[in-house]
Specification:
This protein has 26 helices and 31 strands. A 7-stranded mixed barrel has the order 22-26-27-28-31-30-29. Strands 6-5-2-3-4-21 form a 6-stranded mixed sheet, sandwiched between helices. It is globular. The structure holds iron/sulfur cluster.
């Protein structure tokens, strides 16, 4: 599981000169975010500084992290690249597929049986291609990354939105789709729109019941779920330096809830202590030597409004504990106002379940603070009045807190320890409920609380708070309980006032673990095979897509003219389909089933031009494919917005759609289509959308002289024998045109590896 110290030393060796060059280019002091980004450019420094929220920039990340659900398609694609091993250090973490039902041991065993073929595939593909593999039960991706791989000044991408957690160790860590992860593992650069920068100045010091979680709950209330879009949040100030490293991780983790690209903190003593406490003293020593480059320039923080696009200031000394929700993480309530809000809004005051832990809040500090509340309660003869669960973030934390007696404390209070996995946080929760129609409340120390997220029940009001506040409210069984002011009553009728929680940042006896759950890859995996059963309905090896024929595309059938919003969810639905995310053929049966057909306003109901019948979109497309007929999808504005799910581009490609023609694209989806060797085109004149008829056969001409900046021509052959000729634009650069010609970017990579 060893981190790559030589790689990190190399980053630090080059950092001073790269930062200096970037500072010279900018002609001003730099934020930490700018230092790290400029130090990770894939190409030479540009002639002038990048424009925030305008420039698209290619970067070279240091690491790739993948969770088990998203890793499947990323790695199936990577296998197509033809490389003997990954180009950058990468890891896979089995955490998302474990359902919480009874308790850690039984639940893990059930998951191992149920997901065996997926785990076997991920273990074997990791072993072959030099990827570190963290088995089911080893822990949640972001906690494991923080404990083992994150390092100050690094750049990481991960196939999960809470990859941003690693900002707690001063790393720029960003959640991406599987296609991006595949590219980086295959040795390509990774593109990001240069972000806007939001500075968060923290003054004062936390005390009493208030914790790091309350800082991000407060920030979420200020910025709302959209306020961080295309922005990186950089935390600074004396308050920032006073927070534990894992507390910083919690804050960065939940930055995903405000839509932030990522968040990060400057390198400081707390990070150094955490690195040393997690057996990475050599990184701390190396980082200490370049500390001035692992923090933003002093002038930036002294005159922050000059260098950040927006600055928020929070005084930690006056910050109250917060509870956010229900149904959205930005509905922020200081605890002194929360009980009244519960009553006024008619939210169910009875707290049915309190859940602590997850990748957001299961550090040693979190567990010890929550356990200090639990211990006082049991000493005073109290037990939990709600169901209460604890999800450790990693086996290392679990083993250590068990050794130190804290799990025992929770169990005495009436708590149940769940597997070291996502479980209820991602809806993998067989909740014990006698009536799913009853309005009910739960409180978690997780990060997301959108409707149905935890238990699939729209009647569940989910709130988010720190582990210690969650523990206190679970003891009361009452959302209106305020541990700062209120009393509990024990079985003897005595009044009990909980004292402020006490936490320990790092274990006094050090961390310990017997089996961390790590499998190192083979030194040379060239002769190893990857385990995929040919009869599996969850996994399927990919075949390379075929290259362009070298001629114009004639006689393409219109598959669907989509009307209005068509997100990647409309193109490739989630929900029950997710179990097929490693099986392209099976998941393609959801292709465009959410899109509205312009001609009849129905979803998943389009005309099969060969039979005249109205049938489901995938069925019609499979008919065209079987007969060797290409097709075209037409769409409206911002086609493909939403998640960066690569399936939305792979499915049409797999089923034989040749082009997607829209009024405008969401950029990530447009790029994904290009990577798969598709034609992503836009109407030169948006009104031409109206010329597309239901029975059109369409010719795309100009492909033999396909060139950057030169429009293509479409001939719309209508059923009545008439036709229209229209111009369509594209944004292909020369390299992307080569992708189209080769049948996809991976075909080019593979060809280059062979030569
Ligand atoms: S614990 Fe929750 S937020 Fe964290 S990785 Fe798992 S599902 Fe995502």
């Amino acid at each position: 599981m060893a981190f790559d110290i030589e790689m990190i030393k190399e980053v630090y060796k080059n950092l001073p000169s790269k930062v200096e060059a970037a500072r010279k280019l900018a002609g001003r002091p730099l934020t930490l975010t700018e230092k790290i980004l400029y130090a990770h450019l894939a190409e030479a420094l540009p002639a002038k500084p990048f424009e925030r929220q305008k420039s698209y920039v290619d970067f070279k990340p240091d690491r790739v992290a993948m969770q088990d659900a998203t890793a499947q398609m990323a790695l199936l694609q990577f296998m197509q690249a033809g490389r003997p091993k990954v180009a950058v250090p990468s890891t896979v973490h089995c955490d998302h597929l474990i359902q919480a039902k009874v308790g850690a041991v039984e639940d893990l065993k059930t998951a191992e049986d149920k997901n065996k073929e997926v785990y076997d595939f991920l273990a074997s593909v990791s072993n072959k291609y030099g990827i570190g593999f963290w088995k089911p039960g080893a822990g949640i991706i972001h906690q494991v990354i923080l404990e083992n791989y994150a390092f100050p000044g690094g750049l990481m991408i991960g196939t999960d939105s809470h990859t941003v957690n690693a900002g707690g160790l001063g790393m720029i860590a960003i959640g991406v789709g599987g296609a991006d992860a595949c590219d980086v593992m295959a040795g390509l650069a990774w593109e990001l729109k240069f972000p806007k920068l939001i500075g968060v100045k923290l003054t004062g010091k936390l005390s009493g019941w208030t914790s790091s979680k309350d800082i991000i709950l407060k920030v979420a209330g200020i910025l709302t779920v959209k306020g961080g879009t295309n922005a990186i949040l950089e935390y600074f100030g004396t308050g920032a330096d006073s927070l534990s490293c894992t507390g910083k991780g919690t804050i960065c983790n939940m930055g995903a809830e405000i839509g932030a690209t990522t968040s990060l903190f400057c390198y400081d003593n707390k990070m150094s202590d955490y690195l040393k406490g997690t057996s990475r003293t050599d990184i701390a020593v190396a980082a200490d030597k370049v500390i001035e480059h692992l923090r933003g320039d002093k002038e930036v923080y002294e005159s922050s409004s000059k260098y950040f696009d927006e600055v928020i200031e929070i005084d930690l000394s006056t910050l109250e504990p917060h509870i956010n929700g229900p149904f959205t993480p930005d509905l922020a309530w200081p605890i002194s106002k929360f009980a009244a809000a519960v009553k006024e809004n008619g939210w169910p005051a009875k707290l049915e379940v309190g859940l602590i832990g997850s990748c957001t809040n299961s550090s040693y500090e979190d567990i010890t603070r929550a356990a200090s509340v639990a211990k006082q309660a049991t000493d005073a003869g109290l037990k939990t009045n709600s169901e209460f669960t604890i999800t450790p973030g990693s086996e290392m934390v679990r083993f250590t807190v068990e050794r130190d007696g804290y799990l025992d404390t929770f169990e005495k209070m009436g708590g149940v320890v769940l597997a070291n996995a996502c479980g209820p946080c991602i809806g993998q929760w067989a909740r014990h409920s006698n009536d799913p129609n009853r309005k009910n409340s739960i409180l978690t120390s997780y990060n997301r609380n959108f409707a149905k997220r935890n238990d699939g029940n729209p009647n569940t009001h989910a709130f988010v708070a720190s582990p210690e506040i969650t523990t206190a409210l679970a003891l009361a069984g009452d959302l209106t309980f305020n541990p700062l002011t209120d009393f509990l009553t024990n079985a003897k009728g005595e009044k009990v006032k909980l004292k402020e929680p006490q936490g320990i940042e790092l274990p006094i006896k050090g961390f310990a673990v017997e089996d961390a759950g790590y499998q190192a890859p083979a030194a040379d995996g060239r002769n190893l095979t990857v385990n995929v059963s040919p009869t599996s309905d969850r996994l399927q090896l990919l075949d390379p897509f075929s290259a362009w024929e070298g001629i114009d595309l004639k006689g393409l059938k219109l598959l669907i003219k989509a009307k209005g919003k068509c997100t990647t969810d409309h193109i490739s639905m989630a929900g029950p389909w997710l179990k097929y995310r490693g099986h392209l053929d099976n998941i393609s049966n959801n292709m465009l089933i959410g899109a509205v057909n312009f001609f009849n306003e129905k979803t998943d109901n389009v005309k099969n031009q060969l039979t005249g019948a109205y049938e489901s979109v995938p069925k019609v497309q499979r008919d065209y494919k079987a007969k060797g007929i290409g097709s075209i999808v037409v769409g409206d504005e911002n086609y493909g917005e939403g998640s960066s799910r690569e399936h939305a581009a792979m499915e049409p490609r797999f089923l034989g759609v040749r082009a997607v023609l829209v009024k405008s694209f969401a950029r990530i989806h447009e790029t994904n289509l290009k990577k798969q060797g598709m034609l992503a085109l836009t109407f030169a004149n948006k009104a031409d959308y109206d010329k597309i008829m239901e029975d059109d056969s369409i010719d795309i001409t100009g492909l033999t002289s396909f060139a950057p900046g030169t429009p293509l021509t479409l001939v719309l052959n209508h059923a009545d024998g008439s036709n229209d000729t229209i111009k369509v634009n594209h944004t292909y650069n020369q390299q992307q045109i080569e992708w189209f010609k080769a049948g996809g970017a991976l075909n080019i990579i593979r060809a280059n590896v062979k030569t």
